[in-house]
What we know:
heterodimer; A: mainly alpha; MetI-like fold; 2 domains; two-stranded antiparallel ribbon; 2 strands; B: mainly alpha; 0% strand; globular
Amino acid sequence: xxxxxxxxxxxxxxxxxxxxxxxxxxxxxxxxxxxxxxxxxxxxxxxxxxxxxxxxxxxxxxxxxxxxxxxxxxxxxxxxxxxxxxxxxxxxxxxxxxxxxxxxxxxxxxxxxxxxxxxxxxxxxxxxxxxxxxxxxxxxxxxxxxxxxxxxxxxxxxxxxxxxxxxxxxxxxxxxxxxxxxxxxxxxxxxxxxxxxxxxxxxxxxxxxxxxxxxxxxxxxxxxxxxxxxxxxxxxxxxxxxxxxxxxxxxxxxxxxxxxxxxxxxxxxxxxxxxxxxxxxxxxxxxxxxxxxxxxxxxxxxxxxxxxxxxxxxxxxxxxxxxx
Amino acid sequence: xxxxxxxxxxxxxxxxxxxxxxxxxxxxxxxxxxxxxxxxxxxxxxxxxxxxxxxxxxxxxxxxxxxxxxxxxxxxxxxxxxxxxxxxxxxxxxxxxxxxxxxxxxxxxxxxxxxxxxxxxxxxxxxxxxxxxxxxxxxxxxxxxxxxxxxxxxxxxxxxxxxxxxxxxxxxxxxxxxxxxxxxxxxxxxxxxxxxxxxxxxxxxxxxxxxxxxxxxxxxxxxxxxxxxxxxxxxxxxxxxxxxxxxxxxxxxxxxxxxxxxxxxxxxxxxxxxxxxxxxxxxxxxxxxxxxxxxxxxxxxxxxxxxx
Lengths: 324, 308
């Protein structure tokens, strides 16, 4: 965006007339434009639901009619959500899990990529990459089956091992204390192939002559890593970080909901996040839609704010790498 | 002489890690790689273990007693299984085609520097990357406003486009279709639509492959849309079938197809191994194809991370 402005002088310049070209390009983009209008922008107006007490109006009208004729609720939906017991629990869970995910995933991805790029046998390195990429292509529903097979109390693999060592079996799906570790482990496991390959791609793109020069100067492998490789992958790292920060109030719904087996009661306060809360509210008939919308809207606003803050911080420190 | 050779060799290898470190790295990645393969093999081995062995010995890596009962059962239930496979394929194919169409056209349009609305379009694409209406609003739009509940369009449209893919496409077209080519085609009298069909489409195969792969795996793996919008069991895809089975194997027993009574049905069903067998039916197509498509994913990821 910045470069375009520079190219066209002060951003205005001589006004170009609308040409046939523009019409044709517009037509070409029309279907996608419609998609954006309906599936990206129309939901944004859904925030209005959060300020309404949605009631079916007499006369069998459509949703929008009913919504517009419902009473305004002011901020009551929000205050209900903020003062409920669930709110602090959800906020804490969502943010803390995400912070753990971001730190651990980034470390594993960068560390793994550095190791892979230094391996002598490139063929084996390719095989490992392919193996580690597999979980990325599996849905959480499928992974939930893996977890079930390993953790289910009576027949599960892990309890079988415990039994053979004479240890009492553990009711994994009822013991909340294990789940933060299980979830972090699974999240890292599913994403590690993707992360490593992403960073590996940017490491392979580094100009090799820099390393040759460093070897001439007698730099060790470690020094090369710290002074050449890491600075070179910084732009990608920062971009991933900003994007991850934008998702800090979101959660990978499948991980929290499917893997735990639909969130049993005993795990509720440990594994619930905004997304699971909203999903359960949508699926529970009779939940006032305005309150669910308030939770949903709060989440969207927080995400937007964090991504802008993260970008602003990066821009202050290092203008070149900011996203916007 | 021998020594000199050795010196040469070591100077070529001077910038490599020590052999011992290399072995260590190999061991680490071998272990990590195996943890990724292991669950798949484990689930497969459960699916071919007899129900009695599972009952008495629990899940074992090496089946205590082999049995094809689970697959036999799925074969007997093929009406349901094939329907789910069919729905998965239909959703994946239609979805992927629509996605490619929506993403590449938009990607091309915003890649044209001369386009008058380019500034507005950039914002239209950018804003959804940082702000969205949230899960509930999307649900209301699809369910209440568009009324797509219990149609396959509810599985297709919400996932049909994303700003991320459009950005990948735009970057691709910026570099592969320079303005000069378009200008010269225009001098020859071609309009943008013809340029699109005759110049842009033929050379955009790589980016279509990347976008298409992302879309195809996304649709094949999607269970979330199905769990939100599908009540009609006839429309369920493999993922939603698996999801429903996970919620309770009774589900299948409550929906007998073969004309058996509920009791007969429950007794005849190798429940544990059947669950795992369905999971295998979903995984196998992915596990067999992803190594070939991996490079497209990587190229997509790297194109997408190029900032302009």
